[in-house]
Each structure stands twice: as C-alpha cells, then as structure tokens.
Amino acid sequence: MAKYTDSAKELLKLVGGSENISVVTHCATRLRFVLNDTKKADAKAIEKLDVVKGTFTNAGQFQVIVGNEVASFYNEFTKVAGVGDTATKDDAKVAAKKNMNFLQRLIANLAEIFTPIIPALVVGGLILGFRNIIGEIAEFGPNGNQTLIELSQFWKGAFDFLWLIGEAIFHFLPVGIVWSITRKMGTTQILGIVLGLTLVSPQLLNAYGVAEATEIPFWDFGFAQVDMIGYQAQVIPAILAGFVLAYLEIWLRKVIPSVVSMIFVPFFALIPAVIIAHVVLGPIGWAVGDWISSIVYTGLTSAFGWLFASVFGFAYAPLVITGLHHMTNAIDLQLMSQFDATNLWPMIALSNIAQGSAVVAMIILNRRDKAEQQVSIPAAVSCYLGVTEPAMFGINLKYGFPFLAAMVGSALAAVISVGSGVMANSIGVGGIPGFLSIQAGDWLMFFIAMAVAIAVPILLTLALAKTKLGKNAYERLGKE
Fold first, then answer.
1. Active site includes 383?
2. How far apart are alpha carbons 133 and 130 in whole angstroms?
3. pLDDT digit string (tens) for 430-468?
4. What is the CA radius of gyration of the chain?
5. Where would a tag sit more exposed on the chain, N or C end, judged by fewer CB atoms within 10 A?
6. DSSP annotation string for 411-427
7. Among the residues of 3-139, which ranges form H helices?
8. In this structure, what is the dihedral angle of CA atoms 108, 111, 116, 122, given to the nearest 10 degrees?
9. What's the angle, vertex CA 416, arms to CA 414 and CA 421, rounded to 5?
10. 395 DSSP 8-state letter
C-alpha cells in the first residue's frame, strides 16, 4: 500500500466522494478542488487528517494545504478517487466560476487580466527601485551630497539604459493589458497587441504631455475631428478597448463564413475597435481613471488622510480574501500615470509585512508543533516577499486572532506612511523588498512604518494568545 493511500481515501470521503469532484489540481503546496456541492466537504474533519495543514475556500475553489509533498499525495489521491489527472489550473478556474456570483466572476476576470503581466510589473518595479538608488540618493562622494550617476559615467549609463526597460513596461502597459484580454477571451492575440500599440503610437501626443500641450493634434475627417492623444500607462482605456475587440471578434466568427473568416474577421474586428477606442472609449476611460485616482489621492492627502489610510490598511487583507484587492492594481497604475507616483502601494507592501509578522508570532507560540511549521515558516517568508495568501489562509485565518493583530499593525503602519507622505515610484515589489519602489526621500519614514508593521503584529499576536480570544481559538483547533 502506498504511503498516502489511507489518507487519500479518508480525504475523498470527507470531500463528498468522487461524484462531488468536478475538477482537482494542485499547486506548490495545496490541492485545489472545484466541488459540485461545497456543503458536502467537511472542512473541520479534513483539517484533523495528519497529512493536512489547513483548508480554505477562495475564488470558488476548496483548497487543502498539504505541504511540499502535495504532488505525491495528489498522484495517490487521483488514483484512489478515480478522477482524471490531466486537468489544468485553467480548467479549475473555469469550473470554479460556476460557484461564484456575478461580482466574484467580475473580480476573477479582472484578476485574470493582470495576473499574466504581474512578472513584468515586478521587474519594472525592481528596475525603477534600482534607478532610485543610483539616481536619487545624494549620499555619496567626498562630501556625501552627490548621487552615483553624478560620480560615475558607468552608473549614469546604467541609469539611462535601464529606463529602456522601465519605459517599455509602464508606458506601454496598454499593449500588455489588451494582449492579456485577448489571451483570456481566446481571441487573436496579435490583434490585441496591434490594438494596444495604436494606443501608445509615437504618432500620438504622449499622455504625459497632454496637460502641458498648447495645441493637441487631430485627425481631420472633414465632417469630424478626432484628437491624436496617446494612452501611455492608462489602464481603463486599454481594458475597455480590449474587451470591445474580443467581443467583436467572437461575434464576427459566428456570422462570417469560415471559408473567408481569416480575411474578414481580423479586418472587421480590428478597424472598428481602433476607431471606437480613440473616439469613444479612450476619452471616457481617461476621464473615469482620472476621477478614480483623483478621489483616492485627494482622500489620502487631505486632512482626513489618516482616516482613509487606517481604513485601507485595516481592510486590505480582507480584500485579498475576496479577491477585490486586484482592483488596487488598476488604481495604483492610474495614480502613477496621473501623479508620477502612488501613495497606495506603500500601504499594500506594509500590509504584506504585517501578515507575515503575525505568522512569526505564531511560529514562536507553536514552536513545538513541527507539522504546523511546515506551513508557517514558508508562509512567513512568502509574506515578507509580498505573497500573503499562504500566511493568511494557512495560519492567520485559521486561528483568527493573528489575522486581527496583522490588520491592526497594518492600519497603524499605513497611517504613518500616508501621514508622512510616503510615495512609491512603481508597483510590483511587495513585502520587505518593497522599499525599493519607494521614493528615496521617503525611505526613512517607510522604514519606520515597516518597523511598526513588524513589531505591532508580533507583540499583539503574542498578547492576544493569552486572552480569551486566543484560548478559544486553541480550544477550537484542539491545540490544548
């Protein structure tokens, strides 16, 4: 009998049997189930299995934390359950949507747009962070008042060269967004790239120069004129244009005969999409994006900025649970486009750190629980590097009080960050490395906020563990 046969059989029974499994896949540490009836899964009983480190439900998927040996357990489970082992994560996402309401599906779609471009945003954030260090920190030289690019031609060349990549990622972001939409919708991806390029073409007035322009060029059609404005770094115009192109192509495939579809579908999809993007959706998307970013920026820099910051810092982690946090990517990018920086991203980085710090406290409290440390230690490291889900779902939410402690620490750190005017030049770099995204002049205050995000959750978690709240959590989990 294989190592995990008994555990696999028990898990199969507790998730409601093979007939209740629509799709099952796995990631680095978790089994991901899409169940026909989620109510049949006995989460409490599953968490008592020796091989299981925890469970949670997210994005319509019931997820079981197994740990580093998840691949071996998955292979044994699929044999015992008699379910196919060829399903992919995309299959699971599609199947999971039947368990979501309209808002959840909307958020899931938004997440699927940004997920493929996150690696580029992370790279861009690191590059802009490095340019911060060599180009903005005037702490070098004989008198300690010069930047590295002022002292060395090599660093000056590196500073200029790295902007080639930074500009490609952030200024030409609409290309990546429209491509991602066509990829998600299953339409022609090269058409998405072309549409994205028409939004950032060098022929157009750069979006960053519109405010200062004395005259805006235009296309003159005789009966109408259309402003030649680019949408560099603009998120909402790109999203709207991408969906118009995708739905046009899907509709045209249904009405145009297949024998001529290769010619006429791309033609009648792309040209109207470009026209609609520049005549209608671009201006509307620009106005909506400016409206959203202005409200956020005004709120965070007003006399009541501390209140906005405390609410956001406290609520960001719960937003991650619902998936609504993906909306902040669009707001951050819009803030960067409009104000050349964002005061939202520093709070996100601090929230990541706070969740990781609460896990550190749980590592201290449960230092004799070797099984839990297989989840908690990697989860804490992951949090400090900007990925919070393993920590939140695997440890903090399971106990409850560490999650609350992290939210309080995040709120206090956010107030310090916003109150001292900390701004980030880019997004994508979260957790402790997030300081690389922060403007050089704001490093000191960000480090102070970071210290709060580390210390408060640890101390508060240790304190809450001794209260009735903590004791009830341990009793509920059978830890006492």
1. no
2. 5
3. 788 888 888 888 999 999 999 999 999 999 999 999 998
4. 25
5. N
6. HHHHHHHHHTT--BS--
7. 5-14, 43-47, 70-81, 89-96, 102-114, 118-136
8. -160
9. 95
10. I
Q: Which two tokens stand for residue 268?
A: 């009648």
Question: Is the CA virtual torsion 432, 437, 438, 439 positive or negative?
Answer: positive
Residue 169 CB partners (closer than 8 Å, separation 6+): 120, 121, 123, 124, 127, 176
pLDDT at residue 96 above 60?
A: no
Distance CA 344, CA 331 (A): 8
Question: Cα–chain-centroid distance for residue 294?
Answer: 22
Tokens, residue 299: 């709120």
Instruction: Using the structure block, give the residue that is written with the tokens 């009541």.
Output: 304
Whether 109 is covered by a domain: the verdict is no
Q: Which one of 42, 71, 100 terminates a domain?
A: 100
C-alpha span between 350 and 434 (Å, rounded): 8
Domain that includes residue 368, residue range = 302-476
Under a CB-based contact definition with an 8 Å cutoff, are residues 53 and 371 in contact?
Answer: yes
The whole-angstrom separation of Cα 166 and Cα 316 is 27
Which of these, 233, 174, 225, 228, lies nearest to 205 by C-alpha position? 228
The pLDDT, as a whole number, for residue 81 is: 86
CA 480 – CA 474 distance, rounded (Å): 6
Number of domains in the chain: 3
Same domain, yes or no, for 436 and 372?
A: yes
Instruction: Return the pLDDT at 169.
Output: 86
Residue 172 CA to residue 197 CA, distance in Å, equals 8
* pLDDT tens-place string over residues 396-414: 888 889 999 999 999 999 9
Question: Is position 222 within any domain?
Answer: yes
